[in-house]
Design goal:
Radius of gyration: 14 Å
Largest sheet: 3 strands, mixed
C-alpha cells in the first residue's frame, strides 16, 4: 500500500541497463524513464544526472570481487531518491533494473 501511495503522489523513475559480467562493463543503456512527477522540459538535466549516477554505481560494483545486485539496486535507489528530493522536493519510487548477460 505504501508504494502505491508513493507512486500516486510522487511518481516513479525506472532506469535499466544490461551488463556483461565476463567483460565487467555496461553493454546497453542506461535507459531512464520518469512518470508522474516532472514535466518533460524540466526532466532532461535530471535524466542525465540520474543516468550518470547509475553508470557510476554499476562501474563501482563491477570493480569489486563479486557483483551483489541486491546491494547495487538498494544503494542506487537510495542515492537517486536523495538526489531527486534535493532537486525538486519529491520522493518518487526508484526502480533500477539490471540484466546480466554471460
Amino acid at each position: 500500500i505504501e508504494e502505491r501511495i508513493t507512486l500516486s503522489e510522487d511518481g516513479i523513475v525506472v532506469i535499466a541497463a544490461t551488463i556483461s559480467k565476463k567483460e565487467k562493463k555496461i553493454v546497453a543503456g542506461p535507459d531512464c524513464q520518469m512518470r508522474g512527477f516532472v514535466f518533460v522540459k524540466e526532466s532532461e538535466p535530471l535524466l542525465k544526472t540520474i543516468s550518470s549516477m547509475f553508470v557510476e554505481e554499476i562501474n563501482d560494483a563491477l570493480t569489486g570481487p563479486y557483483l551483489d545486485l541486491d546491494e547495487l539496486n538498494k544503494t542506487f535507489s537510495e542515492r537517486a531518491t536523495r538526489f531527486i528530493k534535493r532537486e525538486n522536493g519529491r520522493q518518487p519510487y526508484v526502480l533500477p533494473i539490471i540484466k546480466i548477460i554471460d
